[in-house]
Amino acid sequence: MTDEKVFELIFACNKVHTKEQLKALQSLTLEQKIQATKVRIGEWYNHWEGKVYVSFSGGKDSTVLLDIARQVHPDIEAVYVDTGLEYPEIRDFVKTKDNVTWLHPVKYNRHTKQYERYSFKQDLEDYGYPVISKNVSQYISEIRKTKSEKLKNLRLNGVGSTKGVGVLSNKWKYLIDAPFQISDKCCHVMKKRPAHAYDKQSGKHPIIGTMTNESKQRELSWYKQGCNAFDKTNPSSQPISFWTEQNVLEYITKYNLPYANIYGNIVKNEVGELITTGEQRTGCMFCMFGIQCEKCPNRFQRMKDTHPKQYDYCIHKLGIGKVLDFIGIKY
Questions:
Q1: DSSP secondary-structure letter at 4?
Q2: What DSSP line would sit under 236-251, residue for residue?
Q3: 111 falls within a domain
Q4: C-alpha to C-alpha distance for 222 and 14, rounded to whole angstroms
Q5: Cβ atoms 315, 300 nearer than 8 A
Q6: Domain co-membership, 235 together with 171
Q7: CA 193 to chain CA mean position, Å
Q8: Which of 61, 74, 263, 292 could cysteine-pair with 209, CB 3.0–4.6 Å?
Q9: Euclidean distance between CA atoms 67 and 78, whole angstroms
Q10: Which pLDDT score is estimated for 167?
């Protein structure tokens, strides 16, 4: 691809959102992607007259994003949502960064008329456990609670569905009768709600380190809005959305960027791909989304050895052990 075509691609990607455009962006070199990301960040910063921040989870993706963002605007704020579900190594790493605002999940107490700290244990009691995936948890919760026969028929039988969208797979229908609550609300309650509250209070708009190849939903979202979603109800920027996991790991190694030690070392596997010797992903420690796809040792089996205190808390005190037993996952 010529420099002229790369230039056109970078400056058109917030106007043209097609599958071909995304594929072309994903094929750029690392250096070209860095430049494209800086352009997107600059556009976002200028549009909101500097009232922006980097949503910083302490994970490797947002670590790379924060590093690039602060090359463009060194004064840019980072915001970390301390849910109590993060690996301790992640929290320790976040503490090494300057200009980070820490948020916590809260809930309004109607009796005291004040906002109070809200824990994952309370979330499980109020809503239910996150199992299998966001969609599966959402559909099961709706089937159990909805008064709409139309919605129930859609989720159970596909009545009114287009190409099977929005239908609970037969594979997971046994979970409808599970002896515990199931819900997809945890991410919204524990992470998104405090972040949205901060957006409203501060008037700032987030820059987020999500990538389209992480899920079909994120890919479809990119086709609608591109990297900078100026017109969403809750505007947000995803300036590394066309990056891949390999790009992130290459950036860290090439520029010797410090990262949380929970990932271990970055090495090449037998086919020449970069991988981490520790955890591959570092979302919420106790989340069960995707656990059915993991090989042994899975995240909970590893946690038993590496973080026995947290393992005991989640398996026994939070009751996650009984959920894993029910879905047939070893821990």
A1: H
A2: EE-TTTT--HHHHHHH
A3: no
A4: 10
A5: yes
A6: no
A7: 14
A8: 61
A9: 11
A10: 95
Between CA 30 and CA 255 the distance in angstroms is: 12
Structure tokens at 85: 């579900």
Would you say residue 193 lies in a domain? no
Contact 118, 105 (CB under 8 A): yes
Per DSSP, what are the bridge partners of residue 101?
Answer: 79
Calculate the CA dihedral of residues 286, 125, 116, 205 and round it to 10 degrees.
50
Rounded CA-CA distance 294/299 in Å is 8
- pLDDT for 2: 63
Same domain, 91 and 28: yes
- Write the CA distances from 61 to 34, 208, 275, integer angstroms: 13, 9, 14
Give residues with Cβ within 8 angstroms of 44, minimum separation 6. Answer: 52, 205, 207, 228, 237, 239
* pLDDT < 50: residue spans in the chain: none
Domain presence at residue 118: no
Q: Are residues 98 and 208 in the same domain?
A: yes
Is 211 found in the same domain as 85?
A: yes
Q: Rounded to a whole number, what is the largest CA-CA distance in the chain?
A: 64
Confidence (pLDDT) at 330: 97
Q: Which domain holds residue 73?
A: 3-103+204-276
> Which pLDDT tens digit goes with each residue over 230-289?
999 999 999 999 999 999 999 999 999 999 999 999 999 999 999 999 998 898 999 999
